[in-house]
Every structure is written in C-alpha cells, then in structure tokens.
Design a protein that fits this description.
It is a single chain. The protein is an alpha/beta fold. The chain has helices spanning about 5-15, 45, 50-85, 90-95, 105, 130-135, 140-155, 180-195, 205-210, 220, 245-250, 255-270, and strands at about 115, 120-125, 160-165, 200-205, 225-230, 235-240. A six-stranded mixed β-sheet has the order 1-3-2-4-6-5. A hairpin with a 2-residue loop joins strand 5 and strand 6 (about 235-240). The longest helix is centred in the N-terminal third of the chain and has 34 residues, at about 50-85.
Length: about 270
C-alpha cells in the first residue's frame, strides 16, 4: 500500500524511468470477460478489406507520415531557435522551453552548463546521469569528483573551466539515445560552442562522436586532437574517456592521464 506522498512519488518516478508516461483509460477493464478474438484472416480475405478496415489503414499511414513530418519540423525548429540565440543565457532559456524532444518530459532538470564561460577550456559531458538529472549540474556525483581530481592533476580547478552537457536531458533508465533525440539536441550543442568560442574542448565519452557527427566510439577517437569547425568558429577538441567509464575500468586511467598531459601541453603552448 502507498501511504505517503513520498511513496507515490517514488512509484511514479519508477514508472517514468521505465518509459510509462500515460494511462490507457480511466476505467479498469476485466480482460477475462472480453469476447474471444476472431482468427486471423487469410491472405485472400485480406485482399477484400471492408471499408472500415481500409479507413483504419489510411489513418495508420497518416499517423506514420505525421510522425516523420513532426521530427523534420522539430529539427528545423531546433536549428532556427538555436541560431537565433545571441547569448548563452538566451540559449539556456530556449532549451528550457523547447518541447519537441520527448526526453524533456521525463527529466527532472534541464542540465545545461556551469562554470566560467570565459575560460579557454570547455569540457563537454554526454547525456546527464541520474545524479546530473537530480542536481541539474553536468558531471555530478562520483563522476564529477573524479573529474575534479583529473583536472587537479594538471593544475586546473573545476571552477576555472566551463562545463556543459551535450544532451540536456537524461534518457529514462539511462538508455542509449535514439538518432532522433540526438538530431533534435545537436543544434543547441553546436550553438553553445559557437557562443562560448573556447580555444580547447575536452569531449568526454560519447560526446566526442556526437559533436563530430560520427558513429565511432571513444575508443577509436580518444587521444587524437580534432579541429572542430562550426560556421566561422574553429576550436581544437580532444576526446577522452568519460570519468564514469574510468570508475568502472580503472586500468584505463593511464590513457586518460596521457590525454590530460596532452591537453596541458597544448594549453601551455597557447599562452
């Protein structure tokens, strides 16, 4: 039994994370009393569909067509809104009111950015974790603690850099993003970079392939500097293993250390 609002909220959150975001009907249905279903029609019967069946088929096709149109419109709308933003604050507000991406409906917070927007170094997170969704901050929880130690090892303080999330909303259950969700969020991520204009980007985990619009995983991308060109803005990007991945695979921290030293050297040469 659910006795308190806390219990009810916890159950609601469980259903949302599982992807349940709507009810089917207001009244319960006793499915033991439903009439037996008719057997499936044969191939010959299917060719002689009743008018009502033909009408239902037309409606189904219309729904499919509408879904495709809605996605295309959503991407165009995202691109139009993103390019119209002239400041980082405008971009943040635009994301918070953007309704085309379903991820937003299930997320607790829009995870945008924090830190020094004037810094020469921008560190890009992938999609928010559960900690990020609860706090509204990129690189939260244990991943954030490890990132702080990684930066401290090359004499950089977290408060001196700019931290941003490539995807502003946590997928339910932290599942893999769909191509549609990536496409809807990408214009905002790219516009974010053009507004900040960092000299260097440290792209963590899947954020690297996302910003480069490549399917390659971070295993193939990490440690190699890339020139990221967005319109007239050009910046140097270094992919690196995500702190969350390094927590699970501590033996790979030696590669992250090599990448951090490469970042430190590049930033020193720029000064």
């Amino acid at each position: 039994m659910l006795h308190t609002p806390t219990d009810i909220n916890a159950l609601s959150r469980f259903y949302l994370d599982a992807g349940v975001d709507e009810t089917i009907g207001d009244d319960p249905v006793n499915r033991f009393n439903l009439p037996p279903q008719k057997s499936a029609t044969t191939q010959n019967d299917a060719s002689a569909m009743r008018p009502v069946d033909q009408e239902q088929t037309k409606k189904t096709e219309a729904i499919k067509s509408s879904a495709v149109t809605s996605l295309a419109e959503g991407i165009r709308e995202a691109e139009t809104i993103a390019i119209s933003c002239k400041t980082v604050d405008e971009l943040r507000r635009a994301l918070e009111t953007f309704e085309y991406c379903s991820l937003k409906k299930l997320a607790s917070h829009t995870v945008f950015a924090e830190g020094n927007a004037q810094s020469s170094l921008m560190i890009v997170d992938r999609q928010p974790s559960g900690d990020g969704d609860r706090s509204g901050r990129p690189f939260s929880g244990l991943a954030g603690e490890l990132l702080e130690k990684m930066l401290a090892a090359i004499e950089i303080d977290r408060s001196d850099v700019y931290l941003a999330s490539a995807i502003p909303w946590r997928p339910p259950g932290e599942r893999v993003l769909t191509d549609e969700e990536r496409a809807l969020c990408l214009p905002f991520a790219l516009r974010h970079i053009t507004l900040v204009q960092p000299d260097f980007i440290l792209a963590c985990g899947e954020a690297a392939g996302y910003l480069l619009n490549q399917k390659s995983g971070v295993n193939k991308l990490r440690g190699i500097w890339r020139d990221l060109q967005i319109g007239s803005v050009r910046t140097k990007m270094l992919p690196i293993f995500h702190p969350t991945f390094l927590i699970d695979q501590p033996a790979l921290k030696k590669y992250a250390w090599s990448d951090l030293l490469s970042l430190k050297s590049a930033m020193k040469e720029e000064q």
